[in-house]
């Protein structure tokens, strides 16, 4: 029976759904991150690579299009966020806030805003990568939800 076990098919079935979790990045700023996984991450990267011939080495070289990759990554991995205010944003990336601007104003999670934050804050980018590619984090979150639901039924 174990000879006919298709774990590849099992993985594909599991990844058909949209697995997301909410994770706090900094105090009060939570990010909804979608599980991407290694294979999808590589496919995103491959969509953003151009190949060029290097006459010095006589080899084909990868030339990544960072802007294109950041846009695709922001669309795929960062689904949403809440609690990001202009005041918090000013501590994460270089922006000028005019005097009198409401620093408690929430920043919407548009694709452009997600790209900008990923582009200008390496810590946020690393955070998203580490969560989006770590199935264990999603599994732990799912187990916590199952425990909470079981407790509610009691």
Overview of the molecule:
This protein is 51% helix and 19% strand. It contains seven helices and five strands, in the order αββαββαβαααα. The protein has a domain at 38-134. The protein has helices at 7-15, 37-47, 66-77, 86-92, 111-120, 122-132, 135-153; strands at 20-26, 29-34, 49-54, 59-64, 78-82. A hairpin with a 4-residue loop joins strand 3 (49-54) and strand 4. Helix 3 (66-77) crosses helix 5. The strands form two sheets. The chain has a three-stranded antiparallel β-sheet. It is an alpha+beta fold and 154 residues long.
The overall average pLDDT, rounded, is: 86
The main β sheet shows up as: 3 strands, antiparallel
Taking the alpha carbons of the first and last residues, their distance comes to 38 Å
Radius of gyration: 20 Å
Query: How big a fraction of the residues is strand?
Result: 15-25%
What structural category do the secondary elements indicate? alpha+beta
Q: Which stretches of 5+ consecutive residues score pLDDT under 50? A: none
- Order of secondary-structure elements: HEEHEEHEHHHH
C-alpha geometry: flat
How many alpha or pi helices?
7
Total beta strands: 5
